[in-house]
Amino acid sequence: MSEKYAHLLESLDLGFTKLKNRVIMGSMHTMLEEVPNGFERAAVYYAERAKGQVGLIITGGIAPNPAGVVAPHGAKLTNKEEVAQHRLITEAVHKEEGKICMQILHTGRYSYNQELVAPSAIQAPINFFTPKALSIPEIHQTIEDFVKCAQLAREAGYDGVEIMGSEGYLINQFIAKRTNHRTDEFGGSYENRIRFALDIVRKTREALGEDFIIVYRLSMLDLVEGGSSWEEVVLLAKEIEKAGATIINTGIGWHEARIPTIATVVPRGGFSWVTERLMGEVNIPLVAVNRINTPEIAEEIIASGKANMVSLARPFLADAEFVLKAAEDRAEEINTCIACNQACLDHTFTMQISSCLVNPRACHETELNYEPAALAKKIAVVGAGPAGMAAATISALRGHYVTLFESSDSIGGQFNLAKVIPGKEEYAETIRYYDVMLKKYNVDVRLETKATHENLKAGGYDDIIISTGVSPRVPKIPGIDHEKVVIYDEVLSGMKTVGASVAVIGAGGIGFDVSEYLAHQGILPSLHTKEYMDEWGVDMEYKSAGALKQPEIELAARELYLLKRSGGKHGKDLGKTTGWIHRASLKMKKVKMLANVQYDKIDDEGLHITHDGETKILPVDTVVVCAGQEPLRNLYDELSEGGKSVHLIGGAKLAAELDAKRAIHEASHLAAQL
């Protein structure tokens, strides 16, 4: 066992059972439980993580009654007929000597279900439906439903349950004044508002006995108006302990909060300070959460006394062997979660099965596997961007002899541009991971080597994979060759500098990234916890309920215009769970966003436009072009005509908006088949 992570890997004695280390795989709603054969797939998914030595797994949320489901036909555990499918999961995990708890989640007013209920009939800002206020008999029935759900979970073989009391779901809705306007014994005073939570925990403990794990997910930081005060959080934690909880897990922010809590922009371990604040107030283990994506961060949190345990969710999508690799001193081989949300949360909120941008096998373990090749081939991969790195690594892992051609002096492709964007520094980790894997599997990496028809033909390759990526599209605007004009890759690579006033042409993902980059130039990016909390308005002194304060915003380093031809809101096609963050960040920096723009010409005066029918001149020093991309596929066309076994993936196949998720997905599936 690695001494480097001694605190992280230390076992934890819970009295009636022992956890092998201090790592929890946190709850994630993957949609697996809602699809045909989903429980069989979920069993394999969880078993791989148990085999990877995680100390305790917590499933995605399972409703205790029909009103509490995430959406119609959502997963629930309400009767003995539903027990059998859950047993598939628990038996698979126990076979790998793992432990697993089932999360009991009642969504309350967040349910996308017309029969939704809540403490009070107050519509959530993120939902279309208004909930029905629960009557007193319905509240007592709901408490019994939680208890029965826990009993069924035990019958299904789970080692315990997590009672979801945070993130603005039903229990949290009872606790907060924001959503509880009742005047009976479940409303009014704080003691009354926490009665629902305490009754659930106490009655679950009474029904299940002492040898069953009960994790309570406590909202330590609501981040909404009308949320709990710190004194209330402490009181609730103490009462939850008395009611019989085994472990208290940290909950951060409601889903309707307008502060990023898990996106890449959030500093690593950035919310562990609130768990640390509760340390010593209770005698049961406390769990730190959110943006803990490396064993170094996890070890520091536990070693420094910020928490007794850590919960990592998305990092176990990125790498099922996170703990095992740390324990075997192979941390450099961990495929690090970059918190992009593109294949996990964005999928969940669009009712798709979750996966992972950097690991397409996540939640698809029964469909995508990298088996040893029956016959070792010579394979050439052209282009070392995300698609090329993935294709080369997986092909070599399977036993093929792989040569990777890259015309530049480094691997990484477009990720080398992404990693310099403030809030996207994590993208460097993916390049690091592939660099380690390429070396491990003996890929012949040829940097500063342009692949040609001739040298590929001379190499005698059985298969050639073209992943040459994209080139920026340059629009036909009069004056586009003016000295004021630069292309986005020239800016992000440091080849060109920009002036004090800038117009960015194109408001897709790259336009937003370039604007963020230019807004922060000269300002320290928000990489440190205090600076981040100040910028987004989180009160680390917790003087107010919900821990909100006035944001402390530094204006952009230069005057910026973000322009687009189409009408409507800027960033509407960005990620469902992260697009609002990018819009809010630029808005805070006072970036001027103009839609319905026609680009007339560029000259010494600046950028001439027609905006909403009115002719204007933007007197800018620099015009940055972010107007899309063209696929680089000439080599593919040449080779295809020559009858070679050639494959096209990534941006070279389809350049519409840079899509690393699709690129790595295509590369992984192709490499699995060759």
TrEMBL record:
Domain NADH:flavin oxidoreductase/NADH oxidase N-terminal: 8-332
Cofactor: [4Fe-4S] cluster; FMN
SUPFAM superfamilies cross-referenced by the UniProt entry: FAD/NAD(P)-binding domain, FMN-linked oxidoreductases, Nucleotide-binding domain
GO molecular function (one): oxidoreductase activity
Every FAD/NAD(P)-binding domain range: 378-637
InterPro entries given in the database record: Aldolase_TIM, FAD/NAD-bd_sf, FAD/NAD-binding_dom, NADH:flavin_oxidoreductase, OxRdtase_FMN_N
Keyword terms: Flavoprotein, FMN, Iron, Iron-sulfur, Metal-binding, Oxidoreductase
Similarity comment: In the N-terminal section; belongs to the NADH:flavin oxidoreductase/NADH oxidase family.
Protein name according to UniProt: 2,4-dienoyl-CoA reductase
Species: Portibacter lacus
Taxonomic lineage: Bacteria, Pseudomonadati, Bacteroidota, Saprospiria, Saprospirales
